[in-house]
Amino acid sequence: MPEQATIFYSWQSDLPSKTNRGLIEEALRNAAKAVYKSKVFDVEPVVDRDTRGTPGSPDILTTILKKIEAASVFVADISIVTRSQDCRPCPNPNVLLELGYALRSLGEENVIVVYNTAFGALAELPFDLRGRRIAAYRLSPDEQPAIVRQQLTRTFQEALTEIAEHRRFGASYQRNSEFATELISVLIRVQLYGNECGKRRIDPWIERISQIYSEQSKWLKDHSYEATAQDLGLREMMEYLATLLDEVRSHVHVAGGKDKFDRKVVAATEVAALLQSELGRKGPLTEDAKSEIVSVLNDQHRRLAAWMRRMAGNDLYDSGRYNDFKYAVVEIGFQLAYTSYFPFDWPEGVAEKIRGIGETLHLIDLTEELNKHKGRGDFVKMVEDSESELRSIMQRADLVKNESAPGKRGS
Fold this sequence. Notes:
By secondary structure, the protein is of the alpha/beta class. The chain has helices spanning 21-37, 60-70, 93-106, 127-130, 146-196, 202-223, 227-231, 235-250, 253-282, 287-311, 319-340, 350-362, 364-370, 376-396; strands spanning 6-10, 46-49, 73-77, 80-82, 90-91, 111-116, 134-137. The chain folds into three domains: 6-143, 3-Layer(aba) Sandwich (Rossmann fold); 176-283; 284-411. The strands form two sheets. A five-stranded parallel sheet has the order 2-1-3-6-7, with helices on both faces. Helix 2 packs parallel to helix 3 (93-106) and helix 6 runs antiparallel to helix 8 (235-250).
């Protein structure tokens, strides 16, 4: 909930205060106090209405609309107030205007509509209001309000509790999603670079992986004590992984040897994979996230294909162009390998194949350095073969995303 939880009450004075305006406002205030006392709201809700509390002579409509925008909850009395032979029954028009604005500004999940059936049946309401959930009650002018007020208070209390819990769940879901997105990025980097260690020479790679693991360890330490880590039950595993990463960073090559270094990297990589698996069980990828993964794969493949067209027939001895090509391939390879680690519903074997292609491209500069007897054309051909294999894999796995047809972009 925001710092001040305001409940804006849109009332009408056409009907007796005893049966509507005063009754509803008192029940609303009682409900607000009850939900605060039960710790449903983090701050005590304040019931507000019209231009109350606004100094001077403000424009009434502008003031009311601003208050609605700033409110946490909107409550409207849509009881029938007009009735004649020539006109169909209708609620107060000002209330309807404010209700429409609240639905647009706050969303229907934060709106409560209340209705006194003593002045008209629900069937007499406008069609688009009849289909909504309505807090209905019945109190005529000659009846005592005490019992109805208690009933209405309970109704408001239940509605406000539901709204607060919905907001809290939404905020928690958003917070957990953002946390999970950052955490999974850390875990993928640990796995990606860890799995590449065996293919890289230990020097100067040890300095590079020390830097990478330092960044991931710091994130894990900084975030392991967040409430979200505790809520998801990941704190201990995050702390353990940070410890393993620190062991890799603190390893002295000359004292322990390459084998010991590799074992430390493997241990960190395995724990990162285990933690990612645990995170996946806490909350699978959304359809939007899955769509984004497919988009990334297609974007990277298009980039790779574009570079192959650009290099076709070009002088490979143009060092500037060749280096631009190589740097682009390394970045594309990283993105492909990185994407392959996401817990997507991959067809069998596809993630591993894409990861293999990604690692091949990501390590092309190292491969070239270790195979200096080969010419540039050999490495361009290697990238060409990788692009062809990637295209074939994506087609067979139905991962190809068609671009908009010419002339229809943006339609």
